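Thread amino acids onto this structure.
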């Protein structure tokens, strides 16, 4: 008897990441559209509208985290025929995602300094420490190049299908390399928006297809997930 095959993290997690990851990134950037993309402007925007900027950066950080199951799912499609491209592409992109999450944490701290120190002292503090070394500087190159490697692998494996549509979506995926990196980068310029729209064009259709084909989860798994979300939020806020 052949043992049942399982894939991790599973179609529902992967499909959700493929759909929600790009959507949350786009929503986060649109919320700070029109603000200066560099840290003095971002700090000033937070001072003027803290709720909007916190929501913007929170959505962007959540979208970044949700991209990891999306990348795993895409790498599985590539790995059937081109495992090397799948391994390198997924590894580089996920390491780059770790770097972006670190940047989000540093940005969060900078916003708190605006509240406690005032806008001018916070700007000065960020200015004199902006180039400080941290271990995630090592992955800066991966943040940009990982998407290109993954896109080449997707093209070679026809992961988005054959023909012009597949080629367009591979190019769209590669555009994600153009998204600026670093702490307090607004990422609302035309190049950034094009990069994020490319990510959405490449990944969302795959996620929708995956979710439609996925078997329905057991009722207890749905109930457990629905119950854990508010509990985790409460413990996180209260802790």
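Threaded sequence (239 positions):
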């Amino acid at each position: 008897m052949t043992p049942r095959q399982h894939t991790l993290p599973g179609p529902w997690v992967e499909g959700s990441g493929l759909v929600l990851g790009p959507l949350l990134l786009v929503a986060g950037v649109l919320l700070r559209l029109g603000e200066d993309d560099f840290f003095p402007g971002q700090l000033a925007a937070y001072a003027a509208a803290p709720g909007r900027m916190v929501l913007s950066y929170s959505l962007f950080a959540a979208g970044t985290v949700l991209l990891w199951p999306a990348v795993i799912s895409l790498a599985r499609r590539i790995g059937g025929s081109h495992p090397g491209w799948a391994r390198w592409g997924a590894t580089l992109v996920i390491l780059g995602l770790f770097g972006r999450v670190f940047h989000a944490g540093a940005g969060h701290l900078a916003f708190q300094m605006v509240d406690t120190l005032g806008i001018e002292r916070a700007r000065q503090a960020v200015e004199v420490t902006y180039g400080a070394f941290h271990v995630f500087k090592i992955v800066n190159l991966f943040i940009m190049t990982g998407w290109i490697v993954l896109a080449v692998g997707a093209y070679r494996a026809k992961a988005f299908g054959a023909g012009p549509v597949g080629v367009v979506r591979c190019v769209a995926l590669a555009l994600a390399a153009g998204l600026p990196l670093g702490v307090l980068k607004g990422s609302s310029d035309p190049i950034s928006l094009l990069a994020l729209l490319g990510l959405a064009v490449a990944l969302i259709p795959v996620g929708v297809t995956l979710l439609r084909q996925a078997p329905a989860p057991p009722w207890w798994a749905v109930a457990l997930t629905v119950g854990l979300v508010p509990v985790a939020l409460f413990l996180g806020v209260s802790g």
